[in-house]
Write a structure and sequence with these properties.
Elements (H helix, E strand, L loop, with lengths): L16 E2 L6 E7 L9 E9 L4 E9 L9 E7 L8 E11 L2 E11 L1
């Protein structure tokens, strides 16, 4: 049984080593607090290799209609790993929170 079913749109995993044939996605929940109308926003996902070279980037537009009445939107982004070489990578997801940029990081390895 999946204890997260009905709570999260994905099944969480602690796995951090992948093959190019795996399907990998990242989940984030975006909040817009306050009482002002929900505004569209853009998330940016990047992948950097162990030499700190950016090897992938994806921009995702989150429209106002994707937010629910509790003022959050669940976002699932596919991570493009099919062409990655073996080694260590840093995945970064970032987006605006008022006047600052919020970043979340996750490290993983490719076999």
């Amino acid at each position: 049984p999946d204890p997260f079913k009905g709570i999260l749109p994905v099944r969480p995993s602690s796995q951090r080593t992948f093959a190019t044939t795996d399907r990998v996605s990242v989940f984030t929940r975006v909040h817009q607090g306050g009482k002002t109308p929900i505004a569209p926003m853009r998330l940016r996902m990047t992948l950097r290799n162990s030499s700190n070279v950016q090897v992938a980037e994806r921009l995702e537009e989150i429209g106002g209609a994707q937010f629910n009445t509790a003022r959050f939107a669940d976002v699932v982004l596919d991570v493009p790993i099919a062409r990655l070489l073996p080694g260590a990578y840093l995945l970064t997801v970032e987006g605006p929170a008022g006047t600052v940029i919020v970043r979340r990081y996750s490290r993983f390895e490719m076999k």
